[in-house]
Amino acid sequence: xxxxxxxxxxxxxxxxxxxxxxxxxxxxxxxxxxxxxxxxxxxxxxxxxxxxxxxxxxxxxxxxxxxxxxxxxxxxxxxxxxxxxxxxxxxxxxxxxxxxxxxxxxxxxxxxxxxxxxxxxxxxxxxxx
Length: 129
What we know:
Layout: E1 2-7, H1 13-22, E2 29-31, E3 59-64, H2 65-68, H3 79-87, E4 98-100, H4 114-125
Parallel strand pairs: 1-3, 1-4, 2-3
């Protein structure tokens, strides 16, 4: 019911939308970069971008690798924490898919990059995805 599409640039959002439409999947998609809220996405009622996901906020959440590693302002919720909370809303370990588009942008795990560590952590915490 909830899926994540992580890609290299926000320009690829329109490609993701087109790909889902071409598949006639009917799965709604929204761009996390356009979501103003830094809190729990399931509690947000007024964000126009999130409304694309419908009342239950199920669908595909699109974001970039750079947004994944971005820090919250003054100790607030990070986008990673926000993403993980949303993805695991229905089940503790998630139940959707994690798409790593342009996966080489996640960097090398052995090199110790923050991006690679967060991608691995997301896969671990959302092990049913």
